[in-house]
Amino acid sequence: MSNHASRRRFLAVAGSTTIAALAGCSGGDGGGGSTETESMDGETTESASDPMDGGTTETDSMDEGMESVTVTVRVANVAPTDVYGAETPTGGAVWLTPGVFAVHTGENPVFTPGEPASVGLEALAEAGPPTGFEGETGLLGELRERTGSMGAVAAGAYTPDDTVADPNDPTGEVPGAPPVAPGGAFEFDVEARPGRRLSLASMFVPSNDVFVAPGASGIALWPADGTPVEGDVTAAIDLWDAGTEPNGPPGEGPDQAPAQERPTQGADEDGVVRRLSDVDDGHEYPAASEVVRVTLTPHGAMDDGA
């Protein structure tokens, strides 16, 4: 099977319900987007029109009347095509899976360094699906449940329909292929207001349970005493080990995506989330900046109170 075909069937190993959920996340059936409702006390709450449509779930009661801007977030795979051997399931490349994002005012709600990974993060880090394994709450669902608490004001997923091609794409036909190979990217929009930050997570493939994400503080979207952030924010991104499955050599282990036969295949590690650089597993990994580039592009500001 070609690397192309392997990429296109990658998430199928996680089960048909995950594929259906991702199809809904893409919004390709026109059911995406969000609806805005006003509560009895005048608070404004924005929520996705369908719990699995991948749109952003947002609660804005604390920010009513504040200036805001739309920010386009681009998560690009900038890895070379020969990080690992050509005989590996990815053909030597590193892939990035569809992922989740959260806009927050407090600490990163996706995970806490030094603490065990959630069930949803375990699924994303081991097999890629932001919607989780069959019968379990995925990371997307977990973040939506936290919206309105823990400083989280919005949560969503970037999915196959959010992929964009790069004219220098060495593997071709990136759009529609979960995950994206070198040269491809995900793009999605979030609403930024003063004091808001961004966190996100995608699986690093091939691996047992490695993912890309910012640390505890997330990524500044709009400093409370400044202006909307624009440009490259990759310095905030690291490679993380979920601590849920022992690491094997990348691209060689039978319990790694995309080679594993079942998404839950592999021994339990019962560890905690740590920066990959703090894990002494004897294997070689590229730096996060050699794999992913995250950029922010703010668009025209508007005053919600006008």
Describe this structure in words.
It is a single chain. By secondary structure, the chain is mainly beta. It has one domain: Sandwich (Immunoglobulin-like), CATH 2.60.40.2130. The protein has helices at residues 3-8, 16-25, 119-127, 139-146; strands spanning 34-38, 44-48, 57-59, 67-77, 95-96, 99-104, 152-158, 163-164, 185-192, 197-205, 210-214, 219-220, 231-232, 237-241, 274-275, 292-298, 302-303. The strands form 2 sheets. Strands 1, 2, 3, 5, 6, 7, 10, 11, 12, 14 and 15 form an 11-stranded antiparallel beta sheet that branches. Residues 11-53, 167-176 and 302-306 have low confidence and may be disordered. Residues 25-34 have a biased composition (Gly residues). It comes from Haloplanus rallus. Residues 271-284 have a biased composition (Basic and acidic residues).
Superfamily (CATH H level) name: F-spondin domain
For the record, the CATH class is Mainly Beta
Strand and helix order: HHEEEEEEHHEEEEEEEEEEE
Tally of individual helices: 4
Tell me the CATH architecture.
Sandwich
Q: What's the structural domain tally? A: 1
The class by helix and strand makeup works out as: mainly beta
**C-alpha geometry:** globular
On the 0 to 100 scale, the average pLDDT is 78
The proportion of residues forming helix, as a percent range, comes to: 10-25%
CATH topology heading: Immunoglobulin-like
Quaternary organization: single chain
